[in-house]
Amino acid sequence: KNQECEERAIIDMTKVRGQLKDVIEAQRTALEEKNEKIDLLDKSNETTNHLRQEIERHKEIENDAIIAAEEQERVLAGKDDAISELQSTISDLMKELEECKKSRNE
Fold this sequence. Notes:
Blueprint (H helix, E strand, L loop, with lengths): L1 H104 L1
């Protein structure tokens, strides 16, 4: 009877050992899956940060383009003023030339 009890205990311990191995394997698998998810999340965060940097870079480029366009507008406005001044000067010179011609003819 004692031997039967020992044999049953050994069989039960073997079953428990098998169940423990199954539990450990399930935990190992779950841990590997969790680590894979963490890796994916890390990659996602890297991608997100990279996209944020790209967006910032594009905003800076856009701001630089706006500043350049405003500067170009100022330059063009200055050219318009200069052209108006030159036209006025040319007109004045033409009048003077006409007066010189008249006075030479007289």
